[in-house]
Design goal:
Elements (H helix, E strand, L loop, with lengths): L12 H8 L21 H15 L13 H27 L7 H39 L6 H7 L1 H17 L5 H13 L2 E2 L4 E2 L4 E2 L6 E2 L4 E2 L4 E2 L4 E3 L20 E2 L4 E2 L4 E3 L3 E2 L4 E2 L4 E2 L8 E2 L11 H5 L1
Parallel strand pairs: 1-4, 2-5, 3-6, 4-7, 5-8, 6-9, 7-10, 8-11, 9-12, 10-13, 12-14
Helix pairs in contact: 2-3, 2-7, 3-4, 4-5, 4-6, 6-7
């Protein structure tokens, strides 16, 4: 058997020159981040997500130190979240305003903006935690397999998703760039639940199982809503302006009113409204409004049984 050539002898020069040409920053090509201002770190965002879970539910990760008081534990996690998030928001603000990177006054301005955003979030955290407790209670009430609320908090993927989403959504409303989307994408990677930080979600929200759920940016969800796995609240089409560019920010996702249940793999598209107390059955495909107190179901498919033993004989 002949020896393979050592890869260190490979001459990458001709290929390198051609590939480097793809990094040309002329025109609208902005896909190369090298040499620009540092970006927020997805790894740090993941650490912030974990800290948020410990802050909202101290001891959840099993590293509770009984020698410290609850006040000391909460103070530590609050400090960790504040410092890390402040740094990441500042990086995001500076990167989004690259024309002012060398301006010392601008840097101070972004630092103050980041501090104001974090301070506003800290003021909001008690309200967010109250909503998360209602989410956990809704999970226990809505799932007969749950033995207690603690099990929901400790093991249900929707709890981490909602913890991160409710914080990310608040930052989204404060017009913080990059960070909210990075936070939700980080937890999406972990739980399989994809919620855009712009989505508005009311109290006592529960996602059973969760895998494959997608909730679009302009979705509005009321109180006491329950979703099952694979549900999509998506856009039917993307409106464009006279030049053919997408119109961003327009309402294009569903509004789900209070006390609605949506079963597995239902797809609800466009700026439509599902009225209060409605029930949407599995695999339903919706593109029009649903009145309140209405059940929407697919017709039963035809099921065929074949006797495999008789066929073999």
């Amino acid at each position: 058997m002949s020896d393979c050539n050592d890869i260190r002898d490979f001459d990458s020069g001709p290929f390198l020159r051609k590939f480097l040409a793809s990094y040309d920053r002329t025109g609208d090509n902005k896909a190369n981040f090298h040499g620009l201002n540092p970006l927020p770190s997805m790894a740090v965002i993941g650490e912030i997500a974990d800290e948020l879970m410990e802050l909202m539910f101290p001891g959840r990760c099993g590293d509770d130190d009984k020698s410290r008081s609850l006040e000391q534990v909460v103070e530590e996690h609050l400090s960790n979240v504040s410092i890390s998030l402040n740094r990441q928001i500042c990086l995001a603000l500076r990167y989004e305003n690259v024309e002012h990177l060398e301006d010392a006054q601008a840097s101070v301005y972004y630092e103050r903006q980041a501090q104001r955003a974090v301070s506003a979030l800290l003021e909001e955290l008690p309200s967010i935690r109250r909503m998360l407790k209602l989410d956990a209670a809704a999970g226990f009430a809505g799932d007969p397999a749950a033995r207690n609320v603690h099990e929901v908090i400790l093991s249900y993927p929707c709890m981490k998703t909602l913890t991160v989403h409710r914080v990310a959504h608040f930052l989204f409303t404060q017009n913080i760039p990059l960070i909210p989307r990075m936070m939700n994408e980080r937890v999406h990677r972990e739980t399989g639940i994809d919620i855009h930080p712009g989505a508005q979600i009311g109290e006592s929200f529960f996602i059973d199982h969760g895998t494959g759920v997608v909730i679009g940016e302009t979705s509005v969800i009321g109180d006491n809503v329950k979703l099952y796995q694979g549900v999509t609240l998506g856009a039917l089409s993307f409106p464009k302006d006279a030049c053919g560019s997408l119109i961003r920010g327009a309402k294009r996702h569903p509004t789900i009113q209070d006390n609605v249940t949506i079963y597995a793999h239902a797809t609800i598209l466009g700026d439509i409204t599902v009225g209060k107390n409605a029930v949407i059955g599995s695999n339903v495909w919706l593109k029009q409004d649903v009145p309140a107190d209405t059940m929407v179901l697919m017709e039963d498919p035809k099921t065929v049984y074949r006797d495999l033993k008789r066929k073999k004989s």
